[in-house]
Amino acid sequence: MKNKYLSIIIAVLVGMFLTAFESYLEEMPQNKLKPSTTDDYAQLLNKGYVTGQVVPYLDILSDDVDLIAADHVMPGTDNGDVYISAYMWQDHHEASMLDGDKAFEKFYESIFYCNVVIENIDKASGVELNEVNVERTRKNIKGEAYVLRAYSYFYLVNLYAVPYNPETCTTDPGMPITKSTSAEDKAYTRNTVKEVYDLIVDDLLEGIKLMEANPIKKEAKLKFDALSAKALLARVYLYMQDWDNAIKYAEEVIKENPAIFNLYEAGTKLNMENNSGTSWNATNIWGKDYLSKDNDNVIFVNGINELMPAMSYWLFITTFSVNKDLARQFETGDVRRFYFMQTYSRDTYAGYRTKLSYAKNRYIGLTYTMQDSRESGYTRVIRIEEMYLILAEAYAHKTDGMKKAVDYLNTLRVEKFREGEYTPLKVEDFNQNTLLEFVMKERRLELCFEGHRWFDLRRTTRPAMERVGYNNETARLEKNDPRYVLQIPKRELSVNPAIGSNPR
Questions:
Q1: Whole-angstrom Cα Rg for the chain
Q2: Which terminal residue of the chain, N or C, has fewer Cβ atoms less than 10 Å from its own Cβ?
Q3: CB 364 within 8 A of CB 285
């Protein structure tokens, strides 16, 4: 009965909008059913977690992928063809995608659910034994809603606005902010990048405070808790170039959970000279999904394996492969190269052709060498390794922080090499610039295909890039190209023209 009731609630809320901004132009009829208990609001907040293929093009935009065949030698349509427009950095790339660019709509939809919870949870009743427990639950759910709202705004401002620049953020156009479910008859214009980031930080701080003071057990890593919220805050401060606060929160996370995914055992047993699809290794050992929510180093997972259709090994039908320059940057003895990608030299449909296939979520089994992780793999992940890299980057920016930066890099990297094959980094081998370059390289290696690379390119160098598409069509992204900011989807512009297109 409760599920039926909740379905009615959700239907009413979802029906309030056809697109992201239409949701803010209609009032909920006062005679409609609304959530009333803490359980109702907890389940409603679950709808705010954006799942499915929401940003499948994020890594396609970066330099970590290559188009397999510019002449399109495979017959028919490849699974990843819908992302060719994104690969060529074309405006309104959503036109070629089956359901368009969902990110704008889905993240604002998430914000709406969060606003409903934040506005109303204080009045919710509960099924707990006493009012003390009810109040604790109310505050924890409210804290979670603040964090989830920050998470959605973080993606929106990093997709559709310029990167945070301390010198220009007060005037740079960001994204429209709405913190209310009440509709107003007005055009929704953009707040500044600074205003959006200020909201993100305020929401995260408030969410952390509420959840730490009112802890309740959460579903396994699929929902934000205080620890994963601190990790997200460390990431946000890094993007804001607030090195001290990035260090503060990343160190707090590591102090509570220092776990790193250890590759010693796998590296010892692997035949690392044979990384093909037909013969992964000589011994066929058991392993673990690198991005599994069961791993101690993974503290938050969201979404699905978005890259599988475009970059998987499945039936060898795929459009993109791992960039060869990325593959070459892994050092001798680095087991990640063999966990993250594998080589195929045959193709059922197009004869023989070599490619590097995305394989980050794979584990090694007894009967086959690669696990299709459509169900078990995640793209949007927060894990402890990122915290070590945040600390390395933040300390490298400080004049007295280079030794600590190198120490954090060594602590991370030694866990990723076969035992006895790692040579520790030495601080005297770097100056500040070369150390920062090394940190960015290490971020590229460790965090590849988790949606970080495009954002890293945006917030640091915005370099010039070139690529060749089908029929030898060429594309070039100039240094600091305005296309490092994605265009607002046409569907959203038609609903709310006041938001305005991004400059070109």
A1: 23
A2: N
A3: yes
Total number of residues shown for the chain = 504
**Which of 47, 7, 27, 20 shows the shortest CA–CA distance to 181?**
27
DSSP 8-state symbol, 347:
B
Backbone torsions φ then ψ of 289, nearest 5 degrees = -60, 130
Say how far apart CA 406 and CA 424 lie, in whole Å: 9
- What is 2-54+102-217's CATH topology? 1.25.40
**Token digits for 266?**
């796998």
User: How far, in whole angstroms, is CA 104 from its chain's centroid?
Assistant: 15
Q: Closest by alpha carbon to 9, among 93, 120, 101, 87?
A: 120
- Per the CB < 8 A criterion, the answer to whether 196 and 218 are in contact is no
410-452 pLDDT, tens digit per residue, is: 999 999 998 899 999 999 999 999 999 999 999 999 999 999 9
| Distance, CA of 463 to CA of 479 (rounded, Å) | 5
CA quadruple 97, 79, 52, 483: dihedral, nearest 10: -40
CA–CA separation, 140 and 42 (whole Å): 10
Task: Give the span between the Cα atoms of 36 and 440, in whole angstroms.
Answer: 48
Structure tokens belonging to residue 288: 């673990």
* Closest listed residue to residue 306, CA positions, set 54, 3, 477, 35: 54
The label of the residue with tokens 């427009």 reads 85
Lowest mean pLDDT among 4-18, 94-108, 458-472: 4-18
Phi, psi at residue 125, to the nearest 5°? -85, 175
Place of tokens 């890594």: 59
In the Cβ-directed half-sphere of 445, how many Cα atoms lie within 13 Å? 23
Q: Supply the DSSP string of 400-466, one letter for each residue.
A: T-HHHHHHHHHHHHGGGB-TT------GGG--HHHHHHHHHHHHHHHTTTTT-HHHHHHHTT---EE
Helices and strands, number each (H, E), in the chain = 17, 8
Distance CA 301, CA 292 (A): 8
- 3-state class of 76 per DSSP? coil
444 and 401 Cβ atoms separated by less than 8 Å = no
| Distance separating alpha carbons of residues 351 and 291, to the nearest angstrom | 32
pLDDT above 90 covers a percentage of the chain that reads: 59
CA atoms of 205 and 1, how far apart (whole Å): 37
Alpha carbon distance 106, 481 (integer Å): 26
Enumerate residues 6+ apart whose C-beta is below 8 A from 129: none
pLDDT of residue 93: 86
Region of poorest pLDDT, from 223-237, 355-369, 384-398, 432-446: 355-369
Distances (CA, A) of 297 to 223, 231, 258, 362, 387: 16, 12, 8, 17, 10
